[in-house]
Amino acid sequence: MIRCGTDIIEIDRVRKSIDNIGEKFINTIFTENEKRYCESHNKMKYQHYAARFAAKEAIYKAFSGKKELSWKDVEIINNESGRPKVVFLRDMGEDEISVDISISHCKDYATASVVVYFA
Prior knowledge:
The chain is of the alpha+beta class. It has a single domain, classed as CATH 3.90.470.20. The chain contains 4 helices and 5 strands. A 3-stranded antiparallel beta sheet has the order 1-5-4. The protein has a two-stranded antiparallel ribbon with strand order 2-3.
């Protein structure tokens, strides 16, 4: 079975959540690796947080009705060449799952698209 998901978010919405709610928001949504990665981008950290938020939303949409996921069941990292990669941090059962993901952001928006293959 192949499923897809996509999401787009205003970067300012994520910035306001981080500025208003702070660590509680960050710690609810993002793993330690994701936080380190985003925070390492200083002035552009909100774009990276928003992109990872959109990526997780896109994954949840693709998994909708198939498997339940929480925010921290999924981690978005970059491989050696900088391409985003999905890592599942909990046992996903007997299904073999393959995920292809694309993330992009500009000044105002971040977007992500995923294609998931369930064997």
